[in-house]
């Protein structure tokens, strides 16, 4: 195959996620083995194109042995938006547009295309850079599984298994001690992890952001369970779930003064249930544990497919597009189309029907769920 | 919802598979909680409808705690085809048609519908019983992932992770001892497990039944690897993979005199490579270990969806159909359409492209693969 | 073997712990298969001897399949001290001595010996009941590994592996995001879990109750690490660890009004480090996850040995004793001797030396550690 | 601390084993951080002192991230005895004494002490080199746990968990299909892995080299089980177990012409049981899978202690000694004393008593076991 491309750059942005290293390995191997290109690794997301000395060539040796490893060998950051970068001058911090600096860095590195691996925020930046003339190819990363234009992304399956194993562990404790245990899982806007981990981990109650919950309904259900002889219950709550009427406000991470407080949704629910049921309720917040660990088989395979097919798309001359899984095959969609659209749990989905069929309480009278 | 159905039977047939218990739990819970039906469990596949005293009512208590457990609480068997059942009279064994006996047993049990959980063979029997007037609903089970009309079935994802973890383990041994290690995985006709576990476990060579392999090509590739400084290699082979020209014959299980010999394909390859490369080659046959273990999150969820949606399909009056996953949703297809069609690895699939892009040897010159 | 014993009771008390079911299985199997005794299971610790209808015969069938399961099939509770049991009369709660009631229940059940599986608190109650004439045999349970008279008890090894796997997961996140991550583990008085999980999980700082920490020393060490190019650090803290000068007070569990607040020690440290280092610090509290899960091989074996050898000790006529692991063999020690003595980490132990040799910061200048 | 030592060499010999990398990390970190020594890594056991260019300096960076990884970054080999090394001249292979070459290499490298990590064979070579004047310090490695002078060594606990998990997996298959399943585990002379994994994995029959088995007794026990309604059985056999009267001969590995055949003991037993019981018997050979994987918490901790304390012993001037775990503390014993003594399962051990108490068949009438 012939191709005008000679050198590509690659970066990982946003929260870390199992499978990032597998994507990097596939990008590097495919670019070198199939096309003989050079690959430049950019450290810590777009920061690596803002600060000096944060890029390095990636060869086959650099990606050896990284397939089973979580995290990203390039590093990442949640913060680096070059269009609004916090710059401090004379003790005053302002958001500055450093995008031209990024573009000139890309040029001086001689990159023909930039491969951007990241979530909606990172891909948005990629899109904006593309609008200024940078050829980019996006690879979707979302541990929450909430991107619209890919059936699923990598990291989600591993997070799901981690959350399910936590439920398996809590199950025996809850049963032995006849306790109510609340497990808070990731998911600020979309309840995929809570819903799917909850079903597969045998939760009795599952609360997701898509269904504002009714505390009294939950309390009734828990009392019914108690009276029918089940002396314990497992309650899964997504971090973004909230009671009817009152959505909790989360501050953007960088504004937080203290150590970031996780567990808000879970603790709030536990407090409410405790005063309502006069029963002891324990809370566990899984937090960062969901982002770590060796990727599952599904995630390692999908990551490898994304990485390899992204390079082939570049070789075909594609630009401004994102690889995606659709109908079990890897395809590409335009970045313009892909960004800014969130895939939430549809209430008419058979997964919701399954949860209700198994007797799981979703926080609301089932009759009311369809009319949300 | 109203429904004329009052009592359903359920059985599991064929090889065991992680997720069977999760299906049973969903069937029982949905039938009882949503419709108030009775559920009768039938032991050891169709054997439970041939022999007396092999059925029992399944209540909510019977399916408590079985979600995370492998295997099937009903038992299963690979052998019980009531249309050709081995009956021994006067020391002579003949295959007899006991299907009328099965039908009259179903009638005497008062079953309105029979839920049959099994692979292609078991579903074929279900179809034949349906042709004789029995209302059935099928739930596809195939650890090899080779059924045509469902995107995937349960058990496969768990088997994949088990196989991948085995590769992770063998990797360190192979690397420390500079060895060639062959791992034989399941897959008599379809190479899905070998292909996907091989990619996700970082195998250097993957041999599947869909691509008859060329020993010399493999030997060359292994020597290239050796010469480029990689002093070890991991070779994954599906049990049904075979060299170009000579397909290995497998005897049907029941004809085997001795303990069933696994490892044929792996050992044959190891012998051939050893004499060809003058290097020590070790073989591991994963065998039954792939069928066991607690199901993964994906498999627990899919099993639960299959079980719940099968009961809802019955309530809607469906019969002679099989639940299936299509386009990420559970639907039903007619059994007539579903059986007898095997889903093999398509050589133009992006998974094959990914394997080749990563430099994995698939047993044949890539140029020849497309022309098979 | 002959024995006057005919019927034994068994209960589990205190916090749940992986291996309890394996002990119960071994007690039941040994008592029935080797001696033909009857075994009565008592539910929820000593509560089962206070409330009616909370005992049941345990046969071989009852313990089938429980070896790999966490928790206890008998249930447990942290609270039931029959010598000081909270009884509410006219809205007033008083601690009453119900020990005579317990003794008469044991007599009416016809128990020759009571097998008590529990930690120091539970064994103390057993000892006090013994003083009133009840023949007891103790089996030590302590997930914190802080009982003096047994080299180790079951549950600890499983908890250690759970904690280590959490560290493995956090490692990739910390490394990818260049973060300080604090993991709070169990251990109110003894730092065994934090120390051993910390070393085996590659922690950079480990804080245990035995070594009151110096915040400035830790901050210096973290800055040194940063300056030498290690842009992330993992900090493990036992829940009972505290800074020099100020021991944190923990309220007894039953006095807490709200949902029990875990994470005190970890959050306090994170706050302090954050203001001291001007760096973002994240906290994860492992909490109840450490108590759950299927027991490790070591724990299943030790539990089985404890259970079997406890029954043999009863058959030999022993009473008022506790089984223990000493010099790799199961022996028995007198309860009088065993209770009330806590095994803390000795600062001159080679495990402490190992941690320091690996460059791990233990919260204090090593020169000062030996002089605590 | 002062010390005349300036430079140490380190090598790993014999079969690979989880924890080797953790030992190497602790040796390197302790030598550099505590004493400022140089460490030279020697590749592939003693081969690295025979062939040129097989040594390299090991710095802190080289051991970063290897704690959780199986295998050995230095490589190993089962074959390299410098006192009897196979040398081929004119197509004729003779065993030659290359020990002087090894000694002169050590001198030219300027090594003050050689740290030898290996099993009995490797430590024997170390002892013989010591006799010729080389200062050595041994670190015991035995996945079979059969070294006399250390309570336990690293790798064993990980192998045990791997074997137990395999039994957990086989359990559900055996139960669902009502099958006899044989699992062959490591252990040529000592049955530790089979015995301990068998108990912790719930095996019904456990056969170890220390107890030559009686096929009829096993068949009777399996029939009893069948008749009491247990329609499946799990049988664990150590690779070195053999029937009464006839010990199987194993050829030394290097003499084998074909790919090394594992599974001898298991397949032999399965054949015998199959003809004896007229029942289908399946065999799984765990093989190399037992040597791989990430080390358990126990193994990572013990490895770290061994590595750190070996370096401290060198600093104290010790030589010709081996670190060992005794009474839960690390100590050293003289190599002369340590080598050539195998720790077999003692038949009067409480582990044997426990197995029998649980109703496990050990291949022989229990009355006869004590008189072996």
Major sheet attributes of chain A: 7 strands, mixed
Q: Number of DSSP strands of chain A?
A: 13
Biggest interface, chains and residue tallies: A-C, 47 and 47 residues
Q: How much helicity do the residues of chain A have?
A: 25-40%
Q: What's the CATH C level of the largest domain in chain A?
A: Alpha Beta
What is the CATH topology descriptor of the largest domain in chain A? Rossmann fold
Query: Which stretches of chain A are low in confidence, meaning pLDDT under 50 for 5 or more residues running?
Result: 249-262
Order of helices and strands of chain A: EHEEEEHEHEHEHEHEHEHEEHHH
Under the CATH scheme, which architecture of the largest domain in chain A would be assigned?
Answer: 3-Layer(aba) Sandwich
Quaternary structure of the protein: homotetramer
Structural class by secondary-structure content of chain A: alpha/beta
What is the residue-averaged pLDDT of chain A?
92
Number of domains of chain A: 2
Describe the structure.
- The structure is a homotetramer of 372-residue chains.
- With 372 residues, chain A is of the alpha/beta class.
- Chain A has helices spanning 20-35, 99-109, 120-131, 156-177, 192-200, 215-227, 264-277, 297-315, 335-338, 350-357, 366-369; strands spanning 7-12, 38-42, 55-57, 85-89, 92-96, 113-118, 136-140, 180-185, 205-207, 233-238, 281-285, 321-326, 329-334.
- Chain A folds into two domains: 7-154 and 295-338, Rossmann fold (3-Layer(aba) Sandwich), CATH 3.40.50; 159-292 and 346-369, Rossmann fold, CATH 3.40.50.
- In chain A, the strands form three sheets. A seven-stranded mixed sheet of chain A has the order 3-2-1-6-7-12-13, sandwiched between helices. In chain A, strands 9-10-8-11 form a four-stranded parallel sheet, sandwiched between helices. Chain A has a two-stranded antiparallel sheet with strand order 4-5.
- In chain A, a hairpin with a 2-residue loop joins strand 4 and strand 5 (92-96).
- At the A-C interface, helix 4, helix 7 and strand 11 of A face helix 4, helix 7 and strand 11 of C.
């Amino acid at each position: 195959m012939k191709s005008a491309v000679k050198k590509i750059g690659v970066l990982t942005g946003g929260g870390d996620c199992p499978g990032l290293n597998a994507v990097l390995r596939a990008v590097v191997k495919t670019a070198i083995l199939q096309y003989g290109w050079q690959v430049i690794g950019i450290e810590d997301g777009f920061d690596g194109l803002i600060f000096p000395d944060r890029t390095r060539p990636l060869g086959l040796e650099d990606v050896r042995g990284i397939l089973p490893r979580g995290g990203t060998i390039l590093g990442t950051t949640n913060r680096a938006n070059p269009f609004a970068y916090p710059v401090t001058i004379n003790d005053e911090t302002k958001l500055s547009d450093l995008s031209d600096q990024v573009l000139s860095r890309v040029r001086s590195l001689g990159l023909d295309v930039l491969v951007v691996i990241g979530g909606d925020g990172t891909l948005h930046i990629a899109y904006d850079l593309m609008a200024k003339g940078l050829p980019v190819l996006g690879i979707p990363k979302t541990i929450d599984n909430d991107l619209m234009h890919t059936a699923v992304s990598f990291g989600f399956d591993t997070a799901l298994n981690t959350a399910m194993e936590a439920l398996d562990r809590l199950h025996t404790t809850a049963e032995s001690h006849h306790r109510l245990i609340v497990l808070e899982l990731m998911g600020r806007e979309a309840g995929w992890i809570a819903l799917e981990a909850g079903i597969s981990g045998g939760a009795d109650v599952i609360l997701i952001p898509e269904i504002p919950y009714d505390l009294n309904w939950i309390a009734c259900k828990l009392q019914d369970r108690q009276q029918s002889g089940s002396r314990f219950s497992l309650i899964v709550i997504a971090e973004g779930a909230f009671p009817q009427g009152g959505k909790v406000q989360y501050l953007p991470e960088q504004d937080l003064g203290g150590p970031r407080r996780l567990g808000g949704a879970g603790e709030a629910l536990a407090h409410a249930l405790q005063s309502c049921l006069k029963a002891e309720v324990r809370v566990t917040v899984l937090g960062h544990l969901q982002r770590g660990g060796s990727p599952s088989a599904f995630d390692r395979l999908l990551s490898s497919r994304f990485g390899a097919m992204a390079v082939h798309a570049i070789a075909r001359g594609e630009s401004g597009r994102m690889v995606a899984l659709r109908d079990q095959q890897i395809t590409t969609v335009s970045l313009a189309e892909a960004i800014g659209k969130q895939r939430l749990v549809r209430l008419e989905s058979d997964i919701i029907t399954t949860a209700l069929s198994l007797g799981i309480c979703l926080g609301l009278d089932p009759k009311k769920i369809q009319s949300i």
